[in-house]
Amino acid sequence: MTNSRSIKFAKDKITGKYLNADEIFNDRQVGFEYRTQYNRKEIQPYCVECGERLIISSSKYHNIHFKHIDSEIPCILKESLSQEEKDIFSQISYTKESERHIYLKNSIGEKLLTIKDVRNVRVDDHFIYDGHDKRRPDVYCEFLDKKIVFEIQLSQLSQKYILSRYDFYKKKGIYLIWVLDDLNILESTSQMAKDIKYLSTHQNYFKFDESSDSLYLECKYKSTHLSSINEFYDRWNTVRIGLDCLYFDNANNEVFFYDFGKEKSLIEEVQRKNRIEEQNRKNEEEKKKRLQQIKWKVDAICSEINETKNSVLKNFSAIKNKLFSFDYEELNQLNKKLSIDSKFALHRWLKLADNESFNFLKFIYENYDFVYDINIVDPEGNTVLDILFKRKDLKNKDLIFELIIKRGYKINDRDEKYLFEFYKDTPEVAENIIMLSNYSKQFDNSTFRGYLFQFKKTIRIIESAKQGKIIGYAFNKDEWIKFANMVLNSNAKYWEYIEIAFKHYGLYDKLILLDRKKTFQNKLNQYYTNPEKTDHSFKWIFRELYPELVKPEKDFDNPF
């Protein structure tokens, strides 16, 4: 029966003595004697927790025990408790009346009276009400405009007990100070230590300083620090303080000396800044390391380009493959090192080129990893074409010119004179090149400029039909049938496109009238009998150059 009692201690209002249920009720004879005294009103037991009257009752098994009277007044001892909680509450009740507990609460009360701005000090005789619910703190006082209660902890407290005090006082706007008799408990791993620590936002804990004449508390608090490697670590600190050193957290109704949360936030900000600085330092180191690696890579590829340029074979295919692996930053540094525009390298390379330099120039002009302005003018006022045509001894000038135009060079009137002079024996070639060069001006896309020269023969055929004169071929101006027969012989795979142009520009009807010997019509019949498969790779440049030959998309018979 001993372990099943919820109420193990009561206080006799008449004698002021404390009644231990286990001592007086375990002996059934003694228990019935106390029950007789109760019914004769010789003793008046009260609950040491809620202060309400108790009765001495007997169960159906004739077990004597304390029992609350029926009322709406709440008491934690009325609740359904586990056996462990019953034992803890029993121990709390016992220690509340121990000599140590009585000494501490009386000493705290006496020393509070010595402090300025403290008033209305009450020791163990003041109930705080919230409706029917009430609590009797060990010590109550008012300091400045704050109401404070002191609860002394000598024994093991359950979380339920701690919360019942904490929630009640917080609801009433009263600041609760737990007075621990042993601050070292905070460093233990007991459940009570955890419950107390985690309930406190600021993690400040107090012990009564018994040695002073006025009220002083030993405050043990946890502070956060940063290690030399910018990592958090916590440290317990102890300081002796008076009430005037305390701060009041209105949001949580907590009393504290050291604001753990605020200080930790400040330190977290320092840690964040340290991490940013450290990351910036690492980034800078990585950047320097990366730049050094890029420099080595750029220096290596430049050396390889120079060696290949001066070699016998001048095979740049391996270098092209390596450049393909270069990222944006590496290419950017490569172009900074080459500084082709600022050094007028294109002009210099053409001035120094020999008849073995074509592969190098082709490599430079065709590789768009190299960034430069092909139209730049050197300090002497020369364009790259000025330099090219001044080189009377240089072979493959026509191929180099084509590379320059593909790269985006904008041909001018002076360049056209150079071309007619260079191709003075075959002016039709100059005329064809000028035509392609002028077309290239309208394309920023290097791919389309490349198409111009890839399909230059087909383009000059269509241009001949469009302009009504034979362009780029050594035919007399009236030899249209020879021209048309040549077209069918050498450009049959593009005939579908050419035929559209011939018909649109009126050349087709003209050819039928001029074809008295039927040579063109016979070739045309042979083509339709066994047509060559059309190469539609010409479609893209055809659409760009001759939009008037492309029928609206709603015309489903139009293949282009």
What brief labels describe this structure?
560 residues, Trna Endonuclease, Chain: A, domain 1, four-stranded mixed sheet, three-stranded antiparallel sheet, 22 helices, 15% strand, elongated
Largest sheet data: 4 strands, mixed
The amount of helix comes to: 40-55%
Average pLDDT confidence is: 88
Which architecture of the domain at 98-258 does the CATH hierarchy give at level 2?
Answer: 3-Layer(aba) Sandwich
Q: How many runs of DSSP E, i.e. beta strands?
A: 16
What portion of residues belong to β-strands?
5-15%
Rg calc: 52 Å
CATH topology of the domain at 98-258: Trna Endonuclease, Chain: A, domain 1
List unreliable stretches of 5+ residues. none
Strand order, largest beta sheet? 6-9-10-11
Helix-and-strand structural type: alpha+beta
N-to-C CA distance: 104 Å
Shape: elongated
Question: Total helix count?
Answer: 22
CATH class of the domain at 98-258: Alpha Beta
Q: Can you describe this structure?
A:
- With 560 residues, the chain is an alpha+beta fold.
- Among the domains are: 1-74, no CATH class; 98-258, Trna Endonuclease, Chain: A, domain 1 (3-Layer(aba) Sandwich), CATH 3.40.1350; 455-560, no CATH class.
- 47% of the residues lie in helices and 15% in strands.
- It contains 22 helices and 16 strands.
- The protein has helices at 21-25, 28-39, 83-96, 99-112, 159-171, 191-199, 260-309, 317-324, 328-338, 345-352, 358-366, 384-390, 397-406, 413-422, 427-440, 446-454, 456-467, 480-490, 495-504, 507-514, 519-529, 539-545, and strands at residues 9-12, 18-20, 45-47, 54-58, 64-68, 118-123, 128-130, 133-135, 139-143, 146-153, 175-180, 204-208, 217-226, 232-241, 247-249, 254-256.
- The strands form six sheets. Strands 6-9-10-11 form a four-stranded mixed β-sheet, with helices on both faces.
- The protein is elongated, with a radius of gyration of 52 Å.
- The chain starts with 8 loop residues before the first strand and ends in a 15-residue tail after the last helix.
- The mean pLDDT is 88.
